[in-house]
């Protein structure tokens, strides 16, 4: 058992008969009354995000997890296949467990947290950004750059991303995996 002073981002806990990962927290000490911790919890079984407040000193049940590096091999329907880079053991995960499955390119390394009690994967942490090649986009219209205008572009994984007008087919772009937004053009 741990207490609220042990709360940190990425910590996995048992709460309301489910396993949650803490994605945000804030310790609050009001002028009047006891301190408390505001948290944003993400369910690792169904992906729902829940706001919860723990009073200071509240006991929390921590789930022990191990983090391993896995390489994305390929997808088949809703199943995504990963290989442990150390033991070469393969696992299959459902598309629903992944935050941005449409941005996963074959060969990409991800961090997978595994529950040590049950040996089941809990969550997949994508890299902060990923570089993908634009396979299709409409050509930009000359003189249409007065505002921050964007156009849709399809990348090599099949995902659609809004990009600036100067991006052309064949360009490599960096995409933020958390929001799925264009970050910058990458020069070779």
Task: Describe the protein in words.
The protein has 188 residues and is mainly β. It folds into 3 domains: 2-62, SH3 type barrels (Roll), CATH 2.30.30.30; 65-125, Nucleic acid-binding proteins (OB fold (Dihydrolipoamide Acetyltransferase, E2P)); 129-186, OB fold (Dihydrolipoamide Acetyltransferase, E2P). The protein has no helices and 16 strands. The strands form 3 sheets. It has a 6-stranded antiparallel β-sheet, with no helix packed on it. A hairpin with a 5-residue loop joins strand 10 and strand 11 (121-125). It is flat, with a radius of gyration of 21 Å.
**What is the element string, with H for helices and E for strands?**
EEEEEEEEEEEEEEEE
CATH architecture of the largest domain: Roll
Write out the strand line-up for the largest beta sheet, numbering strands in chain order: 1-6-2-3-4-5
Main sheet overview? 6 strands, antiparallel
Global geometry: flat
Count of DSSP-assigned helices: 0
Low-pLDDT regions: none
Domain count, please report it.
3
Q: What is the CATH class of the largest domain?
A: Mainly Beta
Secondary structure: helix percent: under 10%
The pLDDT mean sits at: 87
Share of β-strand residues: over 45%
First-residue to last-residue Cα separation: 50 Å
Structural class: mainly beta
Query: What is the number of beta strands?
Result: 16
**What is the CATH topology assignment of the largest domain?**
SH3 type barrels
Family: Belongs to the elongation factor P family.
GO cellular component, one term: cytosol
Keywords: Cytoplasm, Elongation factor, Protein biosynthesis
InterPro entries: Elong-fact-P_C, NA-bd_OB-fold, Rib_uL2_dom2, Transl_elong_fac_P/YeiP, Transl_elong_KOW-like, Transl_elong_P/YeiP_cen, Transl_elong_P/YeiP_CS, Transl_elongation_fac_P
